[in-house]
Amino acid sequence: MTENKPAIAAVSLDPADDAPEWTDEMFDVAEFSISGKVIRPATGYLGPNGVVRGRPPQRDVAKRQVTLRLDPDVIERFRADGPGWQGRMNAALRKAAGL
């Protein structure tokens, strides 16, 4: 025979509780659409420090993906400083190579 389980109380979660307050600059770059039809496309995106306009600059020479084995403590040291750790690691390698 099956056992009746107690009902779980419904919890109302408002996704706007954790959402940041919108600024005028955010509204200026946001896409505007009505019923799924885009009236004005987005002109930027929200980056870690606010609104960033356009694409990042293109490089003359594209970076190449490689497979590289590194000691775990080296990787963790670069990751400990947060986002951008791969760029910082690249800069350290360039400095070590004398570039």
Automatic annotation (TrEMBL):
Domain of life (superkingdom): Bacteria
InterPro entries associated with the record: BrnA_antitoxin (IPR025528)
Annotated protein name in UniProt: BrnA antitoxin family protein
Organism: Sphingomonas echinoides
